């Protein structure tokens, strides 16, 4: 059962980063084998079937301006994008009252708006001093890496309302509790993904567009091109380096190669034994990666009825479950879909999800629909379908984005991406620009491929 | 190669917790199989060979008063303890100056001593309000779980000197950065392990005694008793429950049982697939466990020469590598051994280990010996041997103790130990008393065994 194969480069992981790396290598004339642990390609992108050929994205789903490398890849693959639906008025709901608003800025109280602005100004001023390729060289790097983003907010926000806005905005993009994220990491992300407006906005921001057919189409197209080079159900358990090359041992096959690109989150890469042992910094980045985990909940309606009422479907709330809601209908609006996220992001602020909803799908559905009914009226109470994608129970994927904990950047610097002999590291977590986004996955892949090509065979 | 076996209870993990559980079950007349992933028993206890039959402990090594369950177990197994050597004067070294002192309290500046005292007083007052079995019910639980111990120290320590003392004390016992540890978790640990003096002290505290022959003798004795019930090299990859029992699949053997006790750290338990899926809280505790990781460095001398000079060998310092030094010689003092720890604990305070020492054993040795020479003179510069145990590269053990991150206790409460159908949880991380200590490992085992015995077969 354990076949043997020889190739120029092994890529581990058939997410967008791994498959992009494999394609670039193949384009450069290198032979390549992609080993994927799971039974599908796409990694943290995947589709859920709604009905009659309609799909919705169970994982990473957005692209936006400035995400040039993933946009270029979409172009190369002939995939089209469409704008996230935000026409009409959005809803800001807090303490039992709903307000409707136009544009991107929810109608916080004047004091909270001023507070949000001063927090944003300060964070962006700090972020500008953080060199993207070497955040640990920022003048105040040690101070900022010794605290978390959540604590900085706790200490510097004057209003709970502004702080909640940050928590919601960053939970959607980072799937992670700001209290587990180093402030220095967060500042580097603010700098590397175009600023806070860009991070939190739909129009003109990182949530601006979706991919027709779902983002998993990227991986599927790449895999089609790569054909038999992609091997599924092949979890890798060992990478062994010697003077002449590297042997990658997987459940289905051993592959001998000149180099290997590991295109996995650092947390997942920790499952692979490496011989000889990894440098301490790399080992620590892997072992102490704080994985964000979340679920996506979808309510499906015959049509996007809120649009008829002049609503965008977008809502920012303090309701028990639906903290952020967005219209996730297919491009033709043939059915209506409302999406929310349920994750770890608010835990560090002392909040908790209502009892029972984490383990009881029926309770979760009820609580979500109750919130939607508050926001969008009785028509929201009876969807034609309810779907969810829970990333807590994936066999081979331990989380979404996440972060290095306090102290890791200043102590271990670029250990997340520094090559270890013949081993190179991809995955969006290793990107310096748009880290955590699909674009970061592509950029990390291209950087890893450059490393491989520039070193040449055996050098 | 994949045999099949049937038993009353499967225990996963042959550390002290797992083997204690197996022995208790066998004593109660239950048949038991222990599946251990690695090629040895002991888990996070192990011996290093020094020379001529002399050993030193590579992992957990101390027991102390109040740790009644592990002390009782030592008695049952006929193992003896001896006192950690602290006779004579200890050294407090800070900013280039060494001071010698008697007793347990280093000669901090008067202001720092007062500061340490107020911090200790406040922490212990807070800890008294934390119910051991349900820390999340403390009146201020949400506030304390929304911050980290490190941040509380940053905010409340008036002197860097007192803060450093806490960092050193807690790094030795927790192997973890206080900035990755929820304050509520730490308060529960202070309460559950007898207070701060008890945590940091040798005499009268948790570092008071060692086990003759090393703590790994506990696991070895237990394994001898259990005989063929203990199977090594048997990593478990799946636990599948059904109405009638549970099937545990390992690399070497599948075992069918009535119940299973998982005696692993939550981080390591995450490697095992569970069908049907785990409750969300348990899954999140596993995935978001923050593992502390550290190395132990040992300098071995022909004899403990410092004793002749009236020194205990103990030192508390701000030197680059040897922050805390302790005499780790064998009971007869036949050779002299000085021990220090190198880990993640200081990272969140913006400190970092000197360049190169993490990856270069020779540099690490040199830096350690340079520090020892500052403390103990030229005789320390030339040991007869240098040993180290690096816990960063263990194949099956992802860390030492560690902690739940902020928000986890209040959101997921007792998910770390609440049984999941036929699955029960042991390991020191699941103990409410002496969590993280050997004693916690024994207590957790006994609690899990009680659960199994009280539910009876198939109930």
Notes on the structure:
With 459 residues, chain A is α/β, with parallel strands linked by helices. Among the domains of chain A are: 3-44 and 215-290 and 402-455, 3-Layer(bba) Sandwich (FAD/NAD(P)-binding domain), CATH 3.50.50; 109-200, Orthogonal Bundle (Guanine Nucleotide Dissociation Inhibitor, domain 1). Chain A contains 15 helices and 19 strands. The first copy, chain A, has helices at residues 16-27, 68-77, 110-128, 141-145, 149-156, 160-174, 183-192, 196-200, 216-226, 266-269, 280-287, 305-308, 361-376, 408-412, 438-455; strands spanning 3-12, 32-35, 47-51, 54-57, 81-83, 89-94, 97-101, 209-211, 230-231, 236-241, 246-250, 253-262, 273-275, 294-301, 311-317, 324-327, 336-343, 385-390, 423-425. In chain A, the strands form four sheets. In chain A, strands 1, 2, 9, 10, 11, 12, 13 and 19 form an eight-stranded mixed β-sheet that branches. In chain A, strands 7-6-15-16-17-14-18 form a seven-stranded mixed β-sheet, with helices on both faces. In chain A, helix 3 (110-128) crosses helix 6. The radius of gyration of chain A is 22 Å and the shape is globular. The mean pLDDT of chain A is 92. At the A-B interface, helix 4, helix 5, helix 11 and helix 14 of A face helix 4, helix 5, helix 11 and helix 14 of B.
């Amino acid at each position: 059962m354990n076949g043997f194969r020889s190739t120029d480069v092994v890529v581990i992981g058939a997410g967008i980063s791994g498959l992009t790396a494999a394609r670039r290598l193949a384009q450069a004339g290198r032979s390549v084998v992609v080993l994927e642990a799971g039974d599908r390609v796409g990694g943290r992108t995947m589709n859920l079937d709604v009905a009659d050929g309609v799909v919705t994205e169970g994982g990473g789903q957005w692209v936006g301006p400035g995400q040039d490398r993933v946009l270029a890849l979409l172009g190369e693959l002939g995939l089209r994008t469409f704008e996230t639906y935000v026409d009409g008025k959005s809803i800001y709901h807090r303490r039992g009252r709903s307000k409707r608003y136009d544009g991107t800025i929810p109608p916080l109280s004047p004091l909270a708006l001023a507070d949000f602005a001063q927090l944003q100004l300060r964070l962006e001023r700090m972020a500008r001093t953080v060199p993207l390729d070497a955040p640990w060289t920022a003048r105040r790097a040690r101070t900022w890496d010794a605290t978390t983003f959540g604590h900085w907010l706790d200490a510097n926000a004057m209003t709970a309302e502004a702080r909640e806005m940050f928590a919601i905005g960053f939970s959607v993009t980072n799937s992670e509790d700001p209290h587990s994220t180093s402030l220095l990491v967060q500042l580097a992300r603010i700098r590397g993904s175009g600023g806070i407006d860009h991070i939190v906005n739909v129009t003109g921001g990182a949530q601006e567009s979706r991919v027709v057919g779902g983002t998993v189409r990227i991986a599927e197209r790449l895999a089609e091109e790569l054909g038999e080079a992609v091997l599924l159900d092949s979890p890798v358990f060992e990478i062994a380096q010697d003077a002449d090359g590297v042997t990658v041992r997987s459940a289905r096959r051993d592959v001998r190669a000149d180099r290997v690109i590991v295109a996995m989150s650092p947390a997942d890469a920790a499952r692979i034994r490496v011989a000889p042992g990894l440098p301490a910094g790399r080992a620590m980045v892997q072992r102490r990666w704080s994985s964000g985990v979340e679920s996506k909940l979808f309510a499906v309606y015959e049509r996007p009825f809120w649009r008829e009422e002049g609503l965008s479907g977008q809502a920012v709330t303090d309701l028990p479950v639906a903290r952020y809601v967005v219209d996730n209908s297919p491009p033709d609006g043939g059915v209506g879909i409302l999406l929310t996220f349920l994750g770890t992001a608010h835990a560090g602020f002392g909040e908790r999800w209502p009892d029972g909803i984490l383990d009881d799908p029926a309770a979760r559905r009820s609580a979500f629909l109750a919130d939607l009914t508050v926001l969008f009226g009785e028509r929201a109470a009876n969807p034609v379908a309810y779907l969810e994608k829970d990333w807590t129970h994936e066999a081979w994927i331990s989380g979404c984005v996440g972060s290095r904990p306090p102290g890791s950047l200043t102590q271990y610097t670029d250990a997340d991406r520094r090559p270890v002999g013949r081993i190179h590291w991809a995955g969006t977590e290793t990107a310096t620009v748009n880290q955590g986004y699909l674009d970061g996955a592509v950029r990390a892949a291209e950087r890893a491929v450059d490393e491989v090509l520039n070193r040449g065979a055996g050098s």
